[in-house]
Amino acid sequence: MSQSYNRGLIEDFSRWREFSAGMWAWIFHKFTGWVLVGYLFTHIAVLSTALSGAAAYTNTIQALESLLVVRILEVGLLAVAVFHILNGLRLLFVDLGVGLEAQDKSFYASLILTGVIVVASVPTFLSGVSI
Amino acid sequence: MAERYTSFEPGGRRWLWQRLTAAFLVVVLAFHFFLLHFVNHADEVTFALSQARMEQLTYFSLMILFLVTATFHGVNGVYNALVNQGLTGTRKTAVKAILGLASVLLIVQGVRTALAWAGGVPI
Question: Which InterPro entries has this protein been placed in (chain A) (predicted)?
């Protein structure tokens, strides 16, 4: 049986304390999606230095990677990408009718797994950078 | 009657394409991150190493497909999010045109860069 669902009220962000797990999953998926599409354009712009020659590309990448702030941003990018992937898999399963009754638990699992993968990756992402 | 709370229009195919590209991107994005941060470290990237990868047809074609699907998935996601927020009429048409143009420019620039590494299509 269908029920009334007033999306206007649900999307009133001043009521964030009342949001359910599914609403947070929706917000995080949209936020990480915006970050990733913004990064995609930035990524291609940086890689395009290859059009100016081998030295321009190598120097640009190595100069960026020598900066601590870039490494920290890369860890942030990893967090955003891993969450978007895991929550995206959750959405694919829910679309297929699998795990709908446990959609809140699978959201929490996505968050925890993202945290674990990101923390475990920090040493790799920060290796060889000077402060 | 229940109000619809999806970003996608009824009967549209954009939902299907968003999901199909997502399934592809889950695998290829994970591969991309793993290859370029864990197998090869980002601070060791040089033009020569990128060139060596791009000169292989399998890798080159995978990266072009990755670029096209990621662009579609990202831009289609933005468009659906805006439609979901109430974008209609002329503004909706204008946003569609701008996002379409941005996608074409991004793909053209990405392909040009891949060709610069590979020195042409690596057949």
Answer: SdhC_prok (IPR039023), SQR/QFR_C/D (IPR034804), Succ_DH_cytb556 (IPR014314), SuccDH_FuR_B_TM-su (IPR000701)
Interface pTM (ipTM) of the complex? 0.89
State the pTM of this model.
0.88
CATH of the structural domain A20-126, one choice from 3.40.1000.10, 3.30.470.20, 2.40.10.10, 1.20.1300.10: 1.20.1300.10
Contact B45, B79 (CB under 8 A): no
Interface residue B27 vs chain A (CB under 8 A): no
Chain B hits for A48, CB-CB cut-off 8 Å, are 109, 112-113
Question: What pLDDT, in 10s, does the model give residues B1-18?
Answer: 345 556 666 667 778 889
Exposed e or buried b per residue across B35-51, where buried means at least 16 C-beta atoms within 10 angstroms of its C-beta = ebbeeeebbebebeebb
Domain assignment present for residue B2? The answer is no
In this complex, is the C-beta atom of A55 within 8 Å of any C-beta atom belonging to chain B?
yes
B7 located within any domain: no
